[in-house]
Write a sequence for this structure.
């Protein structure tokens, strides 16, 4: 039996999709990129924000329109968990809807519960890049940010056992993956629910010492008030752990952060940023901001811009606030008009583009180690340690004949707002 799986949304969703494929392979089900040749079509959906929900619905409808007689169409993931009944009523062409954490149920539907798992099974990485892969450290979230639906969809925070995470990492490295993206909704909380002393620094140290070969370990999604000296020492002390801090702050002003259900304020955040840059040489810092949260005044937005300029983030992503059904924020008064949110978003990203270009220009003339993601007759595309896949820029290389998955020494020769150019000396 063959299935074709489309995975949408975040890296955590992609990790779920990889796990599902591994389970299905153990039941004798293989994956194919050819949707017409598949016996079943599977969509792993995202339901985090409005744009993601729309993308998921469009993908389901497209597959339903091309579904041939005899094919099954199965939908799972966050959107399916949130709106299963509504989707089932509106999309009768879908054969089954599942939420999250129901991989066994999906396998039972496709081949039957009596199908035994094979002990000898090869599960190629068909969804991940050939150079990097998401490594899930935990499921769910126990924080209560007022704008976020993740806890209601994925449940409370639950760390995966260290041996499971390390096992998956060994599998990835054995298949040629050279960058492990360690993901969780709140990565700093790793191990807190397991008892004992095995926490995030110990996990990262374990991941960084699995093989005597060149690879990267990149922690993602750190909660700002939980970044402490132990974590900084761990990252600074291991060359395989990227000196890269992905810390979604969401805002800088205390009143807005409190309304969001977040802990912290601009002074605490600036102190954190200073500590990182002092204790981890060459660290790159990425954050995420929300503009137009209910009640955000023009003065508070201006203060946010001033904070971003003072902090000087290496990378910054932002999005306009949108109401999410069932969240406390959706019930707040003081909704910001759409045109105001759009203007604020444009203004914020314009300032960040200037900051990013300035940081990139400071790299010109310097040499770095880079991981090659793409290589063809048209050129080579790689990433420095300071560049996470998909969300940050890349470096375009000339005079380089390295293959995908190789690490090369590069010299930065030019810079733009987000991307770099370089050559192999």
């Amino acid at each position: 039996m063959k299935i074709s799986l489309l995975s949408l949304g975040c890296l955590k969703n992609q990790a779920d999709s990889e796990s599902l494929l591994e389970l299905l392979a153990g039941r004798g089900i293989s994956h194919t990129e050819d949707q017409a040749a598949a016996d079943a079509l599977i969509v792993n959906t995202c339901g985090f924000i409005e744009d993601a929900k729309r993308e998921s619905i469009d993908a389901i409808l497209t597959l339903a329109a091309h579904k041939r007689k005899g094919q099954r169409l199965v939908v799972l993931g966050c959107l399916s968990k949130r709106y299963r009944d509504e989707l089932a009523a509106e999309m009768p062409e879908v054969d089954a809807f599942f939420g999250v954490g129901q991989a066994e149920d999906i396998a039972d539907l496709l081949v039957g519960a009596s199908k035994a798992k094979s002990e000898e099974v090869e599960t190629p990485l068909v969804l991940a890049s050939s150079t990097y892969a998401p490594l899930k450290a935990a499921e769910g979230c126990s924080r209560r940010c007022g704008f976020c639906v993740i806890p209601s969809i994925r449940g409370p925070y639950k760390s995966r056992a260290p041996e499971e995470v390390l096992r998956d990492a060994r599998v990835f490295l054995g298949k040629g993956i050279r960058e492990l993206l360690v993901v969780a909704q709140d990565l700093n909380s790793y191990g807190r629910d397991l008892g004992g002393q095995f926490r995030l620094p110990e996990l990262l140290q374990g991941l960084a010492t699995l093989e005597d070969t060149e690879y990267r370990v990149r922690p993602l999604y750190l909660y700002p008030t939980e970044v402490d000296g132990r974590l900084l020492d761990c990252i600074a002390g291991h060359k395989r752990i990227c000196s890269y801090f992905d810390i979604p702050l969401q805002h800088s002003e205390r009143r807005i952060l409190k309304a969001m259900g977040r802990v912290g304020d601009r002074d605490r955040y600036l102190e954190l940023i200073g500590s990182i840059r002092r204790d981890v040489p060459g660290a790159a810092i990425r954050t995420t901001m929300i503009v137009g949260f209910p009640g955000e005044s023009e003065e508070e937005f201006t203060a946010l811009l001033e904070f971003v300029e003072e902090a000087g983030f290496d990378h910054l992503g932002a999005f306009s606030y949108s109401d999410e059904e069932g969240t406390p924020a959706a019930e707040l008064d003081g909704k910001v008009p759409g045109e105001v949110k759009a203007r604020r978003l444009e203004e914020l990203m314009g300032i960040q583009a200037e900051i990013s270009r300035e940081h990139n220009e400071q790299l010109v003339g310097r040499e770095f180690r880079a991981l090659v993601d793409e290589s063809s007759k048209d050129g080579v595309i790689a990433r420095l340690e300071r560049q996470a896949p998909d969300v940050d820029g890349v470096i375009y290389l000339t005079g380089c004949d390295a293959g995908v998955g190789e690490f090369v020494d590069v010299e930065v020769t030019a810079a733009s707002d987000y991307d770099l150019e370089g050559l192999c000396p």
User: Anything to note?
Assistant: The mean pLDDT is 91.
